[in-house]
Amino acid sequence: MEFELIKCRNAHAYLNRKDTVFIDLRAPEQYREYHLPGAYNYPYDQMADWEGQLPRGPLLVLYCEHGNLSLMAAKRLMKRGYHIAALIGGVKCFLAQNPIDTTNYTG
Questions:
Q1: 27, 39, 67, 81 — which has fewest CB within 10 A?
Q2: How far is the C-alpha of 29 from the C-alpha of 51, rounded, in Å?
Q3: Phi-psi region at 81: left, alpha or beta (left = phi > 0; alpha = psi -120 to 50)
Q4: pLDDT tens digits, the chain, 107 residues: what are they?
Q5: Are 28 and 84 in contact (CB under 8 A)?
Q6: In whole angstroms, what is the distance from residue 105 CA to residue 87 CA?
Q7: Distance between CA 95 and CA 42 in Å, rounded?
Q8: Would you call 83 helix, strand, or coil by DSSP?
Q9: CA–CA separation, 60 and 41 (whole Å)
Q10: Which DSSP letter does residue 106 get?
Q11: Contact (CB, 8 A) for 7 and 88
């Protein structure tokens, strides 16, 4: 079983899909500062606490600041049977390629 790698320039196509959930792996402080619309915050350093609680049906798109943590988390969650994708380059790359307003976003 493998997981999908999503290039940041293509990730916008996944944002509004009903079969996709974005998971922000950054610290809560970083998440509160900005995050992708609709993303849920599950900090990587607390993964042991939440990894068994994720939904099994949708594609889970993992992202962090630059992409390193999301790759490690993707490998771990894939082994647990989740449908996983990792955002290459992280949220920084995504926002550089797909400008969206996250300044006042609290969703």
A1: 81
A2: 20
A3: left
A4: 589 999 988 988 998 899 999 999 999 999 999 999 899 999 999 999 999 999 999 999 999 999 999 999 999 999 999 999 999 999 999 888 877 665 544 44
A5: no
A6: 20
A7: 20
A8: coil
A9: 12
A10: -
A11: yes
pTM (whole model) above 0.70: yes
Which residues are paired to 5 by β-bridges?
86
* CA distance readout (Å), 104 to 33, 36, 107: 9, 11, 9
DSSP per-residue letters across 13-67: GGTT-TTEEEEE-S-HHHHHH---TT-EE--GGGHHHHTTSS-SSSEEEEE-SSS
Neighbours of 11 (CB within 10 A): 22
The two structure tokens encoding residue 79: 């082994």
Both tokens assigned to 101: 């307003």
Question: Amino acid letter at 7?
Answer: K
